User: Fold this.
Amino acid sequence: MARIANQIRTLRFLAGEMTQAELGDRIGVTRQTIAAIEQGKYSPTLESAFRIARVFGKPLEEVFQWEE
Amino acid sequence: MAFREKIAWLTLLAMLIAYSIYFGLILSRPEPPTMLGIIWLFGTISLAQLVVVIAGSIAIAVLSGREARARADERERAIARRGARAAYYVLMAGMILAGVVMPFSEPPWKIVNTALLALVIAEAVNNIVVLMSYRRGWHG
Assistant:
């Protein structure tokens, strides 16, 4: 089954241990939503995906990967 | 636990308790209830439930702080839509039963209470789907 994987946990670590709450505040979602995205339990909208990538200064495909 | 998940738990528990009492009282009566009796009992219990939910929501909001003042984010809105969609089908089935099928064979008090039960079950389904989505995750 296809799923969307992501590197958010790693990128948060590399961004000085940015917390889920801090990332959530910067893109306008709750800490719980960031946790759900990280765990692959929720796929964000395209808009939020781009916002997350922009926070880390990375292209979208370095943050999110389509896995089959 | 997210603020809106706590509110969904409060709403679900309050309504299950309130309407268990209502339907328990209605079904345990030896005589069929009058329309005025139904309105009075349902109104009283609904009002009590509303007061409990409002007071509980205020308490949860105070304890949750900033999170309670924030607008629902995209995932929370999507979860709410999923709950409402599931509840719609339950409500539709209940209304067809109460409004189309039962008038041919059942007395008014049974029709009214079936419609009320459909409303209660639909709202319970709404909250259960919302809670499952929060607990298991969107793709769970």
